[in-house]
Amino acid sequence: MSDSNPGNTDTPVNDSASTSPTPATAAPQAKKKKIGGLYEKHNTIYVRAVEGRFVKWRWALVWLTQIIFLALPWLTWNGRQAVLLHLVERKFYIFGWVFWPQDVFFLAIILIISAYSLFFFTAIAGRLWCGYACPQTVYTEIFLWIEQKIEGDHAKRAKLDAAPMDGRKFRIKSLKHLIWLLFSLWTGFTLVAYFSPLKELLAEAPTFSFGPWETFWIFFYGGFTYLFAGFMREQVCKFMCPYARFQSAMFDQDTLIITYDEARGEPRGVKRKGDDTPKGDCVDCGICVQVCPTGIDIRHGLQYECIGCAACVDACDEVMLKMNKPVGLVRYTTEHAMKEGWSKAEILKHVRRPRTMIYGAILLLIFAAFLWGLSTRTPLRVDVIRDRASLGQEIPGGLIENVFMLRVMNMTEKPRSYTLEVTGLDGLQVAGENRMTVNAAQTEEFTLPVHAPQDAGQPGANRIFFEVVADDDPNVKRREKATFFFPADR
């Protein structure tokens, strides 16, 4: 976990309880902001380091997402890149599957599943995505960790920033930004490796001879990673991300959110010897504010800036243990649970409610449809195009000939031979060879003259069918309709 300085300030703040940031009685006034112009001055947040179970979960997700993202392009499958969304070839390779532009239906279902998953998990436990798996959160954690290792803890970083530029500061800052830039460019390179073969990129890297679009996206994605995770950080979550604005539409009184137990914590302050004033469990140390990556005070209640990272929960639990008090002054709970004093079992019982049941049922149905679509997907596509330059012509033998263009798409990673049959009219037949071979993951076009007796159909358009069957698997087949044209003056 990264480290940083309290709240929104440019100088280090004493962590002792005697220098508390805001007394409990002044909490409502602390929310008010004086409007002095069109833009509010940005104050740097130096996030203080914290340890705890939620920090461990967050770092587990950082490792998981980055291992997947950075490692997938290096995996091989059937002698090629295991995951490659090849834009030039217009083919998407995902392990044993090969998807073509005609399979955009599956992409649409994946996007729908992602949307409903967001609704489902947000209704249950708030901004889990933002706090644990969002790329902005993940890369900010990585950049802050690098910053902490090079510049020191939150107080040292604030002191360094406030100091005038000298040789030491220049060296430290230069090293930090160099590592940030190298990591950012590596993420950009990895992103491009999903869309352009990694072997080609590695061959081009020593001479930096990438193509124009590859160069653009390496620097575009890398540049924005450097900008967002290194400089803008909480501003992306507070001002740019639309999710913070409409999250309330997915919350209800039974949604698990990070909450300060005001009844237990107020009035804040340390119980001193000889002081008869009643005090709550909150010692007003301000550490919950100092560890917050967006610089908010959770004691003011739920705020849209809260990304649900639970750093304040870990920080408060650590303080409570040192004070020999029960943990959970700041915790995951619900509005109903706070009002009714529910136990954990009662909170979990209310997870199953109409909203979550509907979201869950829809999600399961869509996911089942997605799996069914993948399992029943036929790895063969056939397009039939009649030669419009010749509507139909008489040939020797009392036959009518139509010429068709047959486009056969082999969607497997092995060469396949197919047998063609035409039906729909008596005596209809393919003139010539009715067997064809298509290479692995390729599309081949075949020009096929088709003959029919003159009396087999009516003048004008007659419906016929082309059936293509794989020789090694009769279940792999396609039946496409076409039109056979008989001239009116035959």
Walk me through this protein's architecture.
The structure is a single chain. This protein has two domains: 1-28 and 40-377, no CATH class; 380-486, Immunoglobulins (Immunoglobulin-like). The strands form five sheets. Strands 8, 9, 10, 12 and 14 form a five-stranded antiparallel sheet that branches. A four-stranded antiparallel sheet has the order 13-11-15-16, with no helix packed on it. A three-stranded antiparallel sheet has the order 3-4-5, with no helix packed on it. The chain has 490 residues and is of the alpha+beta class. The chain is 40% helix and 19% strand. Residues 1-36 have low confidence and may be disordered. It is built from 17 helices and 16 strands.
Summarize the entry for a quick read.
With 490 residues, the chain is an alpha+beta fold.
Keywords:
490 residues; alpha+beta; Immunoglobulin-like; 2 domains; five-stranded antiparallel beta sheet; four-stranded antiparallel beta sheet; 17 helices; 16 strands; disordered N terminus
Mean pLDDT: 87
Q: Strand content of the residues, in percent?
A: 15-25%
Domains (count): 2
Cα end-to-end separation: 84 Å
Determine the fraction of residues in helical runs and give it as a percent range: 40-55%
Secondary structure layout plus pairing:
Blueprint lengths: L26 H4 L22 H19 L4 E2 L2 E2 L1 E4 L4 E4 L2 E3 L4 H22 L2 H6 L1 H17 L2 H9 L4 H27 L4 H7 L7 H21 L1 H7 L2 H4 L10 E4 L1 H4 L21 H4 L20 H12 L7 E4 L1 H6 L3 H6 L4 H22 L4 E7 L6 E3 L3 E12 L5 E8 L5 E2 L4 E4 L4 E11 L6 E11 L6 E10 L4
Antiparallel strand pairs: 1-2, 3-4, 4-5, 6-7, 8-10, 9-10, 10-14, 11-13, 11-15, 12-14, 15-16
